[in-house]
Amino acid sequence: MTRATRLMAKDISVAFAKPAVLDELFVCIPDGKLTVIVGPNACGKSTLLRALARLQPVGTGQVILDGKSIHKQNSRSVARRLAILPQMPTAPEGLSVRDLVIRGRTPHQSALRQWSKDDAKAVALALEQTGMTQNACRPLEALSGGQRQRAWIAMALAQNTDILLLDEPTTYLDLPHQIELLTLVQNLNRETGRTVAMVLHDINLAARFADHVVALKNGRVHCEGSPTEVITEKTLGEVFSLPCSVIADPIHGTPHVIPA
């Protein structure tokens, strides 16, 4: 059954070779929730996120944003409603945090509308929300890995969209910084009502932070639902071929996976 959501992939297929990376995949991203996409390597997680953001063309099917095919919509209009932070983004050497965050305001500017008070407020708020105000003048290369990720998220927040897509935002971060970053994203979701969808590799972190989990296998949605519904011994065996036990996290009550 099709749910009424702002963003969905409707029977999309993407093929670079055989077999297809995504194979007639259908998924709805729940509005206002934090969705985590999980699955084994090469199952299509990042490709799905890129397709949802219109960065990856689809062979068949379509991505729907606000009731219309995203590929038939104006690029600036899409960028005002949906932001994506790809894996390992890069920036010119010497770029300051503030200058990076300012780039998030590009979709709101034009030849007739240059820098405005609204832009300044959006940048200041994004820096504040991510705890990066004190680092605004520092170059990105002078920051720790966790701080750099916060700076990139600030840029996406300055874009001021209702939908935020994050592709493996915890890559190369140690565990404390992973928890710090995911707590930040969860708080932003709770406080602003933004719809967030992100790809994570760590199943236990997905269980702890997600409202909704989508498990992919062989280019299709194998199952989806709450962490308790999806992160089970049966599903992990089917999706990851992982013999394991799943217990309740003694602190958070969420599913916790113990590999056999």
How many domains? The number is 2
Q: What level of helicity do the residues show?
A: 25-40%
End-to-end separation in angstroms reads: 36 Å
Strand content is 25-35%
CATH class of the largest domain: Alpha Beta
CATH superfamily of the largest domain: P-loop containing nucleotide triphosphate hydrolases
Order of helices and strands: EEEHEEHEHHHEHEHEEHHEE
Q: Could you give the topology of this structure?
A:
Blueprint: E1 7-14, E2 22-29, E3 34-38, H1 45-52, E4 60-65, E5 68-69, H2 75-79, E6 82-85, H3 97-102, H4 117-129, H5 145-158, E7 163-167, H6 175-192, E8 195-199, H7 203-209, E9 212-217, E10 220-225, H8 227-230, H9 233-240, E11 244-248, E12 255-259
Helix pairs in contact: 4-5, 5-6
Task: Describe the model.
The chain folds into two domains: 174 residues, Rossmann fold (3-Layer(aba) Sandwich), CATH 3.40.50.300; 66 residues, no CATH class. The mean pLDDT is 92. The radius of gyration is 19 Å and the shape is globular. It has 260 residues and is α/β, with parallel strands linked by helices. 32% of the residues lie in helices and 25% in strands.
Key descriptive features of the protein:
260 residues, alpha/beta, Rossmann fold, four-stranded antiparallel β-sheet, 9 helices, 12 strands, ATP-binding, membrane, AAA+_ATPase, Iron complex transport system ATP-binding protein
